[in-house]
């Protein structure tokens, strides 16, 4: 079994003694005050229509096979399968892929760090050509949706003006999971760190970051 260092500064995993709220849109979302999340958000054109149809068909089949009331495990299994399929497709590089350009990747980076240690602790991230993964812990009084929405909105405005676009730049709903414990955290960090190589990007096109305080505590990309 892998021996991990002590939990990094600021990390809070799932607390079994605290209330968890669940709400669903296209995907289920778990919320717990003080928790740390693994979040993925993507550009609106990053999945072709055929893939979106497959996801809709999966949802229809799943609802038929899992009539209400649905358990938390049912929702968790469904979310895991949707995430697995979606992330494999995202790495294929569909859509405009604005973040291949360092100009736009740096713009998104600046947005993500704008309220660092004021409204949230941002632990690590990777910016891919058409999506972004990050680990974040919202501070009290700040909702995850609002924080991620704020990161996306400014960059969306800049790109929309530059390319004279209409419609939404980003897919509205993000994928997010509460990170359970340090073992789960380690897997997430390594997934984030490896994502550019797995997608076949040249090292010159990698945009990733991890909190230096976490690195000093023994947590880093391998």
The major pleated sheet works out as:
5 strands, antiparallel
Sheet-strand content, in percent, reads 15-25%
Radius of gyration: 17 Å
Poorly predicted segments? none
Order of helices and strands: EEEHHHEEHEHEH
Number of strands: 7
Proportion of helical residues: 40-55%
Shape by Cα distribution? globular
Task: Give the oligomeric state of the chains in this entry, treating copies of one chain as homo and distinct chains as hetero.
Answer: single chain
Total DSSP helices: 6
Average pLDDT over all residues: 95
Distance between the termini: 17 Å
Annotate the secondary structure layout.
Layout: E1 21-24, E2 28-31, E3 37-42, H1 49-65, H2 72-90, H3 102-113, E4 120-127, E5 131-138, H4 144-163, E6 175-178, H5 182-198, E7 208-210, H6 212-216
Antiparallel strand pairs: 1-2, 3-5, 3-6, 4-5, 4-7
Helix pairs in contact: 1-2, 3-4
Summarize the structure in short.
The chain is α+β, with helices and mostly antiparallel strands and 222 residues long. It has helices spanning 49-65, 72-90, 102-113, 144-163, 182-198, 212-216; strands at 21-24, 28-31, 37-42, 120-127, 131-138, 175-178, 208-210.
Description:
The chain is α+β, with helices and mostly antiparallel strands. 41% of the residues lie in helices and 17% in strands. The strands form two sheets. It has a five-stranded antiparallel sheet with strand order 6-3-5-4-7, with helices on both faces. The chain has a two-stranded antiparallel ribbon with strand order 1-2. It is globular, with a radius of gyration of 17 Å. It starts with 20 loop residues before the first strand and ends in a 6-residue tail after the last helix. The mean pLDDT is 95.
């Amino acid at each position: 079994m892998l021996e991990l260092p002590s939990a990094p500064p600021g990390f809070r995993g799932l607390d079994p003694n605290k209330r968890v709220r669940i709400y669903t849109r296209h995907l289920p979302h778990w919320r717990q005050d003080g928790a740390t999340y693994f979040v993925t958000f993507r550009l609106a054109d990053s999945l072709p229509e055929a893939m979106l149809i497959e996801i809709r068909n999966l949802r229809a089949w799943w609802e038929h096979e899992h009539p209400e009331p649905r358990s938390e495990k049912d929702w968790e299994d469904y979310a895991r399968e949707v995430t697995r399929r979606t992330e494999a497709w995202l790495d294929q590089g569909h859509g405009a892929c604005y973040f291949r350009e360092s100009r736009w990747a740096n713009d998104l980076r600046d947005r993500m760090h704008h309220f660092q240690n004021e409204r949230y602790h941002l632990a690590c991230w990777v910016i891919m050509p058409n999506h972004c993964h990050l680990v974040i812990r919202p501070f009290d009084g700040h909702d995850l949706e609002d924080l991620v929405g704020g990161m996306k909105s400014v960059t969306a405005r800049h790109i929309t003006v530059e390319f004279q676009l209409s419609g939404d730049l980003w897919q509205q709903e993000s994928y997010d999971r509460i990170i359970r414990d340090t073992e789960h955290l380690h897997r997430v960090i390594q997934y984030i760190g490896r994502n550019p190589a797995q997608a076949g990007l040249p090292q010159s096109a990698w945009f990733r970051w991890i909190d230096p305080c976490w690195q000093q505590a023994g947590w880093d990309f391998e």
